[in-house]
Each structure stands twice: as C-alpha cells, then as structure tokens.
Specification:
It is built from no helices and ten strands. The protein is mainly beta and 116 residues long.
C-alpha cells in the first residue's frame, strides 16, 4: 500500500514457480486485529501481491503464511520474524515445489526490491 507514492505497509509478493495452481494462502501474525490477508488462487508462473496491516504492532512479531495440505490440514510457514510497525519493506516468497503430502517448498527473501 502506498500514500502519495510512498510505501506505507509491508508488501508480500508470492511467486508460484510450480506447475500447479495454489489456492487459499493466508497471512497472519499473533495479535492481528483485522481479517487475515488472503490470496485465493495463484496460477503456475504467476505473481500475486498482498499488503500486511502492521499498524499498532507492539514490539516484533512473526509473520506466517498458511494453507491447507492435501488432507485439508492447515500448514503454517514462518516468513519473517521481525515484523514491526516501522517495517515497510517488501518480502518475496517463491513457491518452488509441492511435496507429495501437499506441503510447500518455499524460499523467502525479506529484502526484496521489486524494481530490479
């Protein structure tokens, strides 16, 4: 999210580098006071972006991503453990593959420059 061209909330970019469509990714941290940001569907080769509401965070929080595995059980992934009210950066999550049980093989860049 930006205000007059200045980024005011953290942005999470998610790249699907698998050959399958990935559905229902949500993002959360302990103490989140609004509905969890959600990406409904990311097709193979597609990039989606979601903003994380980080206003009024007290101290450092850990940002997680979750989705449902093949058995419909939720799986969470730690994305960034230094989320603060003052963090306005970009995070890139690359989904590299999907394991046979439905868990995701991911790579995270917490200092992503999307202009490069």
């Amino acid at each position: 999210m930006s205000y007059l061209g200045i980024q005011t909330l953290p942005a999470v970019f998610v790249d699907n580098r698998t050959g399958a469509t990935i559905t229902d990714l949500t993002f959360y941290y302990n103490g989140l006071v609004i509905e969890e940001p959600r990406l409904k569907r990311i097709r193979p080769g597609e990039r989606k972006i979601v903003s994380i509401y980080s206003r009024n965070i007290e101290g450092e929080k850990t940002l997680y991503m979750k989705h449902k595995k093949r058995n419909n059980e939720e799986q969470s992934y730690e994305i960034f453990n230094k989320l603060t009210e003052r963090f306005w950066g970009n995070i890139l999550i690359e989904i590299l593959s999907i394991h046979s049980d439905g868990t995701l093989n991911i790579r995270v860049n917490t200092d992503f420059d999307y202009g490069v």
